[in-house]
Amino acid sequence: MKLDPPQREWVEAIGLFLERSGFPPSSARIYGLLLMSAEPELSFEDLVATLGFGKAAVSTGLRRLQETNRVSERTRPGERRRYFRARLGPDAGVDRFRAFNSALCDLLERGIALRGSRADAEITADLEASVRFLRFLDVELGGLRARWEANGDG
Q: What is the pLDDT of residues 104-130, one digit of tens each?
């Protein structure tokens, strides 16, 4: 796959942005390339050649993207190559956020219970308020999605 200089710069810019959001460097560039590609999916070999990364870095980056449900993988009949596609759209992002949010709430609630009654009341109250807000946000996101879909946008 061939990228012109502005496209290559964009892949790097989105990669840096995603790194600041916690993505590993290789995962960030792979995701950026999958977003920029004119092709709907790229092979493992395409990713290695275009990014100039080693096979191990691409393999590790793809594994992380697959674990976080940001990339899907498939094979084509009669071929041994694996092909990768970025998972996009509001459903993918909202679903990831809601799953993360739910897991965080469960973890915070467990921590609140473990803190016990002798723990600092102000911190406990802040944790409880955070959980209430995150649970509220989850309900609101579900409602937003339903309204968006009812609008014919989804």
A: 999 999 999 999 888 899 999 999 999
What pLDDT digit, counting tens, does each position of 27-69 carry? 999 999 999 999 999 999 999 999 999 999 999 999 999 998 8
Chain-centroid distance, C-alpha 44: 19
Residue 112 and residue 120 in contact, taking contact as beta carbons nearer than 8 Å:
no
Q: Backbone phi, then psi, for 36, in 5-degree steps?
A: -80, -25
Contact 58, 44 (CB under 8 A): yes
Q: Which residue has the tokens 């916690």?
A: 22
Report residue 17 CA to chain centroid gap.
Answer: 13
- Pick from 43, 54, 50, 46: nearest CA to 81: 43
**CB burial string 113-131: b at 16+ within 10 A, e below:** eeeeeeeeeeeeeebeeeb
3-state secondary structure of 68: coil
